[in-house]
Amino acid sequence: MSRKMISVQAISEVIKDLGDTFTTKDVSEDLRMREVHRQLTRHSHYHAFVGGALSDHRAELDIKEIQKKTSRGSIWQKNRIPHIQTTKYSQTSVNQTFTLVCPSCGGQLQSTIGNSRIKCTRCGNDHIINLKDETHAKQIVTREFQSIQDELLDVKKSVNITNAELAIARINKELSVLRSELKTLEKKRASGEYTPYIITIIGLSSIIGGIIVYFTGCVSVSIINLVFGVPLFFIGIALIRNSNKNFKQLRTRIQSLEDKRKEYHGVLNRGGR
After folding, report:
1. How far, in whole angstroms, is CA 50 from its chain's centroid?
2. Concatenated DSSP letters for 111-130?
3. In angstroms, how far is the first alpha carbon of the chain from the final one?
4. Angle of helix 46-56 relative to helix 8-16, nearest 10 degrees?
5. Does the structural domain 1-85 have CATH classification 3.40.630?
6. For residue 248, what are the CA distances in angstroms to 103, 178, 216?
7. Per-domain residue ranges for the chain?
8. Cβ(50)–Cβ(24) under 8 Å?
């Protein structure tokens, strides 16, 4: 990208509507220039490109540079008095106001027909506009705003894709740990080495033994078996219930993570939408 891409015809049209003296940014910030050079306006040297084009074609544009390096670029002066172009609006309609959309923040810009500068009350940015036709002005600013919206949408899609990829990686890691725990628990249950089952069986065996011994006349031994077996049995039952609860929660958590992962894969498949 260079200043050779700047349209001299567009510059000429803008200069016609400016005063005898103007700055580089008065030209580069004009909405007509921004409309013609939509791609260049995103370049950090856009204003410098316009200034270079003004310098290269000063003879053709019939202008001269009277001061360099101001806050708004060089100051230029027309060599001849410009022709005053009349508008199609009557005196009563000149002061009519219309509302546009700020291309920087989306706020409302209010101005009168033929006004050359609008300041956004929301973001404070200045916008050059000297269009005689309200409808055309609205169309240009709307296209500018739509372009910004499209760029923001692309950024949002990119962020969504990145978040989805990071979330999927985190979920996969957590699922690996949970599935390992579930597999270990199922293996213990299947092998008969599950501690709550063993405790429950020992307690139940002690209770049954105590009842049998009681009928044989060994009351003291029966009482010892019952005192030992009953608490052990209920402890085993409580452990089994708690284990079943944890087992169910583990499976529910795994299912929830798998559903969430599907949602993030859907985001990736839709390109971040």
Report:
1. 33
2. EETT-SEEE-TTT--EEE--
3. 32
4. 90
5. no
6. 55, 12, 45
7. 1-85, 155-269
8. yes
Burial profile 65-90: b = 16 or more Cβ within 10 angstroms, e = fewer: eeeeeeeebbbbebeeeeeeeeeeee
What are the phi and psi torsion angles at 106 (to 5°)? 85, 5
pTM of the model: 0.38
- Rounded distance, CA 254 to CA 258, Å? 6
Query: What would the two tokens of residue 160 be?
Result: 């969504």
H-type helices in 103-218, by residue range? 134-191, 195-215
- Going 36 to 101 to 273 to 151, the CA torsion angle's sign is positive
Select from 176, 87, 88, 98 the least CA-distant residue to 142: 98
Block means of pLDDT (10 residues each) for the chain, length 273 residues? 83 90 92 86 87 90 90 88 36 48 68 61 68 55 74 85 91 91 78 70 83 79 80 83 81 90 88 80
